[in-house]
């Protein structure tokens, strides 16, 4: 060291050493950032609305302005003659099956032909040189209607004339469990209504269809079930599945199966007819008119309980409004009936469930379908039991909660971890938030926000609880299977799997799995298309379980290929070698090398499948092992209510959730917070109103989504990591069950603040005005 350097060091003026960078998150259990985060923030993420092709035409779809009508005639002459119009298609131009649908029930036409059954049903589609021309041409199609009175009340659907050739009843499930003559010392009853929630995706539907030289077509879509969409499209186009390819573009968030076949199917027809690429970008109004919504539901409940608050019997009637077509209503009804008693031990249960067609907009899969609606009802019933017996609402719930080994009303034994009591105790014992100060600077904390009409003296605070449960994966015999391939070459791993990244974090999870298993830092996940083996739809946590399991199995097979030569060289089994931090070491320390050295330029790959254990359909008494696994969540809501004007502010939601295993802490936290916020929307603001079957205000001005200002403080007070032994990694789905529990918790808290029954969601202001005001 020179004298100058020594002097500088002594005086504390030497240059500081460069800071050591934080280690990059790695493997399972780390908060690995999403691979697409940078592209999304920089605006380079490839959404379908941004796609372009040489010779591009633009599409527009003509939709019915009526909820119910007989079609007398469709005249496309004026539209075809407009300059710039290249093609007009109607039901007469559908070469294959005229019907399609999800949930195994093909009952929806590509284009209405003889009758219109809901507002916004597609009638024709146009391809033109300019998007404005396409829209004007669609509007120029002349349709003569014979208007009919719409059936919009699902209770009237039982007696109404058939709205569809398949009739008005989609499914009826009668559940019978226990002694029908059982009775409790007290009885409480309730009638509950749940409104129509729209998934309201951030980006409206869009797509591009490109004809192929072999007479087929390629569809570029934000699909969450590409193989399912391909099979539907091929059947409607009269083509083989091999002639239709779907390439998944960037999905702008999905809280449901957001594909609307009314957009996708016309695109391919127009491309096949014109021989040109055709693009469609929906307006927000078209998005509201086209895609499916959460099932509006009517629920009647009667609970019998003993003097200690233990449930003796539950009787319920559940009616789901499926809208015009079946879609996934059968699945939603199965979940509603099976979970109608909630995560509680109920020795006797008698449930009747129906899903019926009406002339309302179609309902379909939205997070927690079926389970969310019944949770709002059974939790209201638990509050009534507590009130009638003069007991604490949390205590009544604790006396009834489900645990591993208990039996559901469907007769299925709960074999997965079910720490419901632990979850409820965690939120009950979490400290309550401080009361607001009665000072001018804190007026924004009052219900109604800044400049609100309320007075501090009229505000009452309420505390309530909601406990939700959902099933994971498909149910009732659904064949859940996914296939994945893992390749390693040159120190880079590639994952090929048709599991679509919808915001649930699958691509991040796949990278973490491969990093953990193979010790390779750089992991790429290939884009998804239908040339890959199917992975199924992206819902109910199935990609974490099934597709993640397939990636893990394929990575372990590659791991064996990598380690076998080394194990053979040193005379040991591969089980005695471990991979960590990019290094391969033996149990005794004799072998130590890097993964890169072991690869030595070789290409290794393997393909594997994951298929969970089978389930069975519910029988004629609603009995059967219908579900692969379940997840649970407890939420305590704290609300402030202005009991004079009925405005509600959600102060805090404390959440405890059964997650199995935390695979990515940051991602898991974000998913729970998003689910809770979506539930707050269901509880307070979101209701797509459809007077006489007509969607009112189909835009984001008229449909009140919660904003950042509406989001409450969300406290995740406990995550129970009790691994499910039959699930890969032991993890459970996390995003749906907070959506199920939070609306019930908010309603419970409003009941506590006002003394009102609160039997409708979203909560209307008049329902939050306390008795006497």
From TrEMBL:
Residues 1-38 are annotated as: Disordered. Pfam families: Ald_Xan_dh_C, MoCoBD_1, MoCoBD_2. Residues 1-17 have a biased composition (Low complexity). It comes from the Bacteria. Residues 42-149 form the Aldehyde oxidase/xanthine dehydrogenase a/b hammerhead domain. This is Molybdopterin-dependent oxidoreductase. It comes from Streptomyces violaceolatus.
